[in-house]
Fold this protein.
Amino acid sequence: MGNGSLKEVYHTTDELYKLRKLVSAYEDFVTASVRMKNQRSSMFLSEGKITKRECTSGNAINKFITEKQNLTIEHVAHIRKNSSSCLAKYQRRR
């Protein structure tokens, strides 16, 4: 590195690095799940509804959005479950 503008970066390949990546991804999925649930709750509150799974009636756009939010929440929950089992496998290996 002749001119000093770039610095070398050390990338480890050890198990701790892999675990950190897995935990970071899991935290990202948790954050995405919470964000989507909050958005869905906001949609229901804006219409004066309490039930979380209830599709909005009358407004096709809100119904479409709510259906996609529910699908996304279910999908992220599935990913989180898989991530949890992967973490458990990793923990048992150690």
Notes: The radius of gyration is 20 Å. The chain is about 70% helix and 0% strand. The helical segments are 15-46, 60-93.
